Amino acid sequence: MDQTYRGSCLCGNVAFQLEGSFAKFYLCHCSRCRKTSGSAHCANLFAPGAKLTWLKGEKEVSFYHLPDTRFARSFCKTCGSMMPTDVNSGQLVVVPAGCLDSEVALKPQAHICCDSRANWDDGFEDVVCFSDMPS
Ligand SMILES: [Zn+2]
Ligand SMILES: [Zn+2]
């Protein structure tokens, strides 16, 4: 069922709307995702045939395509927040889950590219949790 989702970047220069539905939700641990996210993995939602509309700041969005691969990223030029990427105009929109302001019902379905995990990316469920910043 199609829904409308909204998202934005950290500095607020960029905002978007997505009309469609998410078919897949993957946590990707590949080295490209680790580099671009600066973290253990990306959390990407995949929306085939969804309609991506920039509500503001379309010109503030930079696009990077890694040569000779299908890897691409969109991000805010000012704050660096990852933004959705419309692959092959309208065929597939890849949405970094963290940039959404709307809630998503779908839960992550799989960790992928696990052979590329960082050596410290293991046993997170055993790491102590604080409700806020520890003092
Ligand atoms: Zn921004
Ligand atoms: Zn990846």
From TrEMBL:
Residues 5-121 form the CENP-V/GFA domain. It holds the Pfam family GFA. Keywords: Lyase, Metal-binding, Zinc. PANTHER family: CENP-V_GFA DOMAIN-CONTAINING PROTEIN-RELATED, GFA DOMAIN-CONTAINING PROTEIN. This is Uncharacterized conserved protein. It comes from the Bacteria. Belongs to the Gfa family. GO terms for molecular function: carbon-sulfur lyase activity; metal ion binding. PROSITE patterns: CENP_V_GFA. The keyword Transmembrane does not apply.
